Amino acid sequence: MSSTPSTTQGTKSAGSSARSAANGNVIKRLQSELMAMMTSPTPGLSAFPSGSDITKWNATITGPTDTPYAGLTFKLTVSFPSNYPYAPPDVMFKTPIYHPNVDMAGRICLDILKKGGDGSEGAWSAVLNTGSVLLSIQSLLGEPNNASPLNGEAALLWDRDQAEYKKKVVARHQEPAEMDVDAA
């Protein structure tokens, strides 16, 4: 009987140790990405941990010029899974946005935010990082994938009437200072 508890404890310790090593690797990777973003910033993009948990970040994207989003600023949240970078982060718009590939809850339809490699559709790769994800989302603002919309109305309007589309973008947008990011 006494061997069972020690075997169970040994298994628990090994599992806990593996999780700690994995979490340590995730933390090191995120610290490295944060340092890269701080030392070589990309215009119009920023991201920082939202508090003491380095796996939860707040990000900001400015709308690309020559798009209906030009001059607008958007807040997003980025949550990194425990197996990052082998699985994509969960990224959501917190600023309300009118876009063919973003639903009203802020979920984003973007191939690199889906895990691939297991036969599923998805283009996530461990070589991608937070900066490349945010840059891809910023590019998506001006180049939506209307073949895979989350907002069908926005997809139809994008193709039909850019002036009306711009009106809907402006009507839905709230400046980040006007909103509580944590409440959304």
UniProtKB/TrEMBL annotation:
Q: Which Pfam families match?
A: UQ_con
Which InterPro entries is this protein grouped with? Answer: Ub_conjugating_enzyme, UBC, UBQ-conjugating_AS, UBQ-conjugating_enzyme/RWD
Comp. bias (Low complexity): 13-23
Bias kind Polar residues: ranges: 1-12
CDD domains assigned: UBCc_UBE2C (cd23791)
Q: Where is this region: Disordered?
A: 1-23
Origin: domain of life: Eukaryota
Which Gene Ontology molecular function entries are recorded, alphabetically? ATP binding; transferase activity
How is this protein named in the record? Ubiquitin-conjugating enzyme E2 2
Q: Which UniProt keywords apply?
A: ATP-binding, Nucleotide-binding, Transferase, Ubl conjugation pathway
Which part of the chain is the UBC core domain? 25-178
